[in-house]
Amino acid sequence: MNTAPAQLLETLTGLDTTLGETVHDALASDSVRALSDAELLDLTRVAESIGRRVDALRITTAAEVDHRSRTELGEERLSARSGCSSAADLICRVTRVAGATARARIRQGRAVAVRTTLTGEALPALFPTVREAVIDGGIGIDTVTAITAVLNPIADRVDPAQWQAAEYELTAAATGNGPDGAPACTADETRIQAKVWELVLDPDGKLPDDERAARRRGIFLGREYENIVPIRGGLLPEVAAQLVKLADAHLNPRVQDRTTPETGTGVSFHETDTGPSGTPEIPADTRTQAQKLHDVFATILGVAARSTETPTLGGMPPTVLITIPADELQRENGVGFIEGTDCAVPAFVARQAACCGGTQNMITGEKGRIIQLGSPNRTFTAAQRRAIIARDGTCAIPGCHMPATWCEIHHVTPHSEGGPTHTDNGVPLCWWHHRTIETSGWQIRMVNGLPQIRAPHNLDPTGTWRPARGSLHHARNTLRRHLTASTPRAAHTDQVRRT
Predict the structure, then answer these.
(1) What does the pLDDT read at residue 35?
(2) Of the residues 172, 184, 237, 318, which has the fewest C-beta atoms closer than 10 A?
(3) What is the per-residue pLDDT across 39-77, written as a single tens digit (0 to 9) for each?
(4) Which of 74, 99, 126 finishes a domain?
């Protein structure tokens, strides 16, 4: 149905009212929860289809607002007459969206809007095939961005016919109208295909991009504020990929699951300790993904500081020095300072840092005299670390699967209280659990040279001490119990079969 310009606003206003009432009634009555699985998926598709058509209107109107706010109109531009600094500012005021959203809509609208010459003559859109798909509701703004953001920068340096072929093929794949009959691609799949087209059409263009990226790479540390040092910058793709792989490796919850191939039982060593309810007691990790990535990064720095391959600094390994007065060290609210900065850290951080090879404490007297300097005797030797790693396998805290090789070794009985630097007094803790062991509520004790853990009261009101799940000795004994328990059943089954 062709809607005349005079009727457009009235028609769409009516649709907005009708749709608003329908959606309000459906959500207020919680009708969505009553749908079957098939109905839910159908509704999801319909909602997305409506959203794509709304998106088409959004980017079209954004492009028109941008066109009427172009700088050559001077004070007559729409944004200026509306008291706004730019088209994006005006869109933000009218729609209450974020500035980034308004600017993105303008970019997308410019790509698919019909253009006008200085004399008023109409020109085709920059991406005519994409425009048709947008108007028909076949693709949304994510797919528009996936195609236009890749092809637009290379339009002036590739063969126009090939460029148009790329636009057509990408749009056909995104809408599911390709000659091969393949189902429609997602926006992410379309972006990957667009990158392939870019490499084929402009094989020499990637080198300058890489050179520009290399010049822009960098990491910048800001000034400490509220005990946080901001970090910003950009990583080259291969560096970011390496960081992601390391994070995935050490955040994967099954990285340390072990089963026994000899028996084929498939019993996980991490699933054998159960509580009163009979369910595995592995507490959920409450850290956000960003916090986990931070802690992996901290772990990487700690491993690098302990590595023999790390260059020395002034003839010594790169060691962070924390200075703290003696009377502050054992106080709950005591404070120390990191060498070379004005950053203060709680006393419990200084106490736990004493176990790590990359950090050293300097304890001062009342007038500033150095009365004790952390020595290597407080740090577990390489041989001791290897033994503890072999014994425990992972971070001692249940639910944390950080491999022991990446963990710090913690004195169960603190060194300041006479605890020896001995394998019977050391357990592996990841950076975060080591840092918070005094404040998190987790408790550790050693029984016959093996660690036992007691969870905080809110996680385990029974206060039961349990063997560390990463202990290979505990895992071996658990499997033996499983095998022993299953042997009578297996023998009985075999006897029945023979009978």
Answers:
(1) 92
(2) 237
(3) 999 999 999 999 999 999 999 999 999 999 998 888 899
(4) 126
Per DSSP, 403 falls in state B
Is the C-alpha dihedral spanning 19, 23, 29, 33 positive or negative? Answer: positive
Are 42 and 10 contained in the same domain? no
Mean pLDDT of 89-96: 93
What is the rounded CA–CA span in Å between residue 103 and residue 89?
A: 9
Answer whether residue 274 is part of any domain: no
- The separation between the first and the last C-alpha atoms of the chain, rounded to the nearest angstrom, is 80
Element (H, E) at 347: helix 347-353
> What's the distance, CA 483 to chain centroid?
40
Query: Do residues 63 and 106 make contact, with C-beta atoms less than 8 angstroms apart?
Result: yes
| Predicted local distance difference test score (pLDDT) of residue 123 | 86
- Number of domains making up the chain: 2
107: in domain = yes
Q: What is the pLDDT of residues 137-150, one digit of tens each?
A: 999 999 999 999 99
The CA distance from 221 to 274, in Å, is 45
Whether 63 contacts 115, CB under 8 Å? no
Average pLDDT over residues 202-218: 72
Return d(Cα 283, Cα 455) in angstroms, integer. Answer: 9
- Residue 93 is part of which domain span? 35-126
Cβ atoms 137, 56 nearer than 8 A: yes
In this structure, the answer to whether residues 21 and 39 fall within a common structural domain is: no
SS3 call for 462? coil
- Supply the Cα-derived Rg of the chain in whole angstroms: 32
pTM: 0.48
The last residue of one of the domains, among 89, 105, 126, is 126
Specify if 147 maps to a domain.
Answer: no
